[in-house]
Amino acid sequence: MALIVRGKSKCAICERVIGERDEVVATSHFISEQSDPLWRYSDAPFHFDCFQKWDTREQFVAKFNDLMSTSIWGSGKRHHMRADGFIEVLRIEETPEERHARVRSFIIESLRERNARPLKEGTCSFCAHQLSESEAMITGGGMTICSQCREERLRQSRDSAAWKPAEANSPCAICCMGGKYPDVEHTPLGRYVTAGHGFYLCEECLDICAQLEKERRVT
Q: Are residues 200 and 130 in the same domain?
């Protein structure tokens, strides 16, 4: 959402300062292409009244909904802008299987992008070993795991001391962003997690890390 400092920030339409009690319309930075004529209005505040009278309001609302309607958050929600500029948070209807497939696909693509280039250095969140560029590692969700720890945890069974059932206070660093999504649906209850130094990693995300490391070796 646009950062608004009342008494200092200016309306993107009339360019007057937004007052303490002014009703406002604002969005996040959803237009990345600077050549788009609506780019300067993305991530900017508007006076509510200015927005209602704006001759480009319909195009702006349509652009927001076109770009944001396909962006589904990990908690299964998406943003929709009404004609008056109010942004509604809508929960999508999906089966548990569809949700699992969506979240898994999102995790894979996010980690693939994050690890497209090997890190030059890092510290494993599990063994605390300092890693160099020559050592295989996967990073995501604020944690890094080296190949040795990854392979060791995958070899150990659920019955070993390395694993425990996931609980609400032990969220996976990757698939539930370390607990940043508070709704219980997003916590991988029913899975098992393994603990690092201040992090937990679930069995499925660990398996995804292993798959991505194999992909990187092939390429």
A: yes
